[in-house]
Design goal:
With about 150 residues, this protein is of the alpha/beta class. Helix content is about 30%, strand content about 35%. The longest helix has 15 residues.
Length: about 150
């Protein structure tokens, strides 16, 4: 079982990781183009496996990635698949996604947003906790200017 927070400093090719056991905030931000994705994401995955045994009532997975490669996306999917196994239907998992404002504004309708995220929403099939997807439109400076919350 996870007994402490996990912090991994960012590099030019790897994201900042800040997983907080006490608040349930799991933050992965920056660029994720590592040559060896397992080196960065395996400790994160193992931490999450421990976390789901004694999670907070609300878990916030904040994915604020400017860019990520295919290997990173595979690890992120594994992490999300583990989080949806939080074994309490009264608990909530909110996945926060940050998009450039132009991309955010291209998704005008709720159906557009659901369609854009259909590939990852398939991961949520059979989820035990309630799942929310919060999408943010951000400026080039990273400031949030718009957001939408969808419960799946």
């Amino acid at each position: 079982m996870t007994s402490q927070n996990l912090v991994i400093e960012a590099s030019t090719k790897t994201p900042q990781v800040d997983l907080d056991l006490n608040t349930g905030d799991l933050i992965i931000s920056g660029k994720s183009i590592p040559e060896n994705a397992a080196k960065i994401y395996e400790p994160v995955f193992e931490w999450v496996e421990g976390y789901i045994k004694n999670p907070r009532p609300t878990t916030n997975l904040r994915l604020n990635l400017e860019y990520f490669n295919t290997a990173s996306s595979i690890w992120l999917a594994k992490i999300i698949k583990t989080l949806i196994k939080i074994n309490d239907p009264d608990y909530v998992l909110i996945i926060h996604l940050y998009l450039p404002i132009e991309d955010y504004e291209d998704m005008k309708e709720l159906d557009d947003i659901k369609e854009a995220f259909a590939p990852i929403s398939d991961i949520f099939t059979g989820a035990i906790p309630s799942i929310g997807l919060k999408v943010y439109g951000i400026t080039e400076k990273g400031e949030v200017v718009k957001d939408t919350l969808i419960f799946i």
